[in-house]
Amino acid sequence: MARVFSKKQIERYASPQRIAALGRQVTETLNAHPRVQWLESPYVQLFVCQNFISDEDCDLLIDMIDSDSQPSTLYEGTEREGYRTSYSCNVDPNDPDIRRIDKTICDLMGLPQSHSEVLQGQRYQVGQQFKDHHDYFHETEKYWEYEGPNGGQRTWTAMAYLNEPEKGGATAFPQLQYQVEPRRGMLLIWNNMSRDGKPNIDTLHAGTAVEQGAKYIITKWFRLNEWQKAWVR
Ligand SMILES: O=C(O)CCC(=O)C(=O)O
Ligand SMILES: [Fe+2]
Description:
- The protein is α+β, with helices and mostly antiparallel strands.
- It has one domain: q2cbj1_9rhob like domain (Jelly Rolls, Sandwich).
- The chain has 5 helices and 14 strands.
- The strands form 3 sheets. Strands 1-2-11-7-14-5-4-3 form an 8-stranded antiparallel beta sheet, covered by helices on one side. A 4-stranded antiparallel beta sheet has the order 6-12-9-10, with no helix packed on it.
- Strand 9 and strand 10 form a beta hairpin.
- The termini are far apart.
- InterPro entries: Oxoglu/Fe-dep_dioxygenase_dom, P4HA-like, Pro_4_hyd_alph, Pro_4_hyd_alph_FE2OG_OXY.
- It comes from Parasphingorhabdus flavimaris.
- Keywords: Dioxygenase, Iron, Metal-binding, Oxidoreductase, Vitamin C.
């Protein structure tokens, strides 16, 4: 059973008012961007930007992922056999290329790098997948004890496809009956929160199993508050 936070702490770590305001701010920024398309869904705020990562950067990131990946993990207390079978790596946040690529994502969304987690790389080989999950934190789980004070709720997700698997590997949103096919260089962005600033259960999604070839992505999660762990300025 997770520790119970005081009202004041809850207000700081997952304030619906601040999350809702952040949602409006990012939506406005993305809507104003000529290259960002809004994927119209009444249930989830979902956006794409084609050719966001250059071919050169896709190759560079794929090499980094190949050289540094470990089996992906899930939060303590939420592990389930076969649930997330990809390989992940936390790319080096001090690498100048990573800093540059990371910053372009933050700039596109109009969010400060300090309020985001370090980019994560992932590789899925044939049969590997990341089953249905939410990116936001479930505040009843044990991990919320340290994730709450360490940046607060995960608000927005930005994910880029670095290649195209020959078969399979789409990102599926079962509640929307919608899936996104990987396209090299494409950035997919969504708000994990509802317009009222509370977790949006309709953001349930999965990295479906790769059937042929491999799939490489980078994922970046934004937080309500400053993420205290990492950014070396
Ligand atoms: O692989 C995908 O398409 C989804 C990945 C994902 O959901 C995540 O990294 O949180
Ligand atoms: Fe996810």
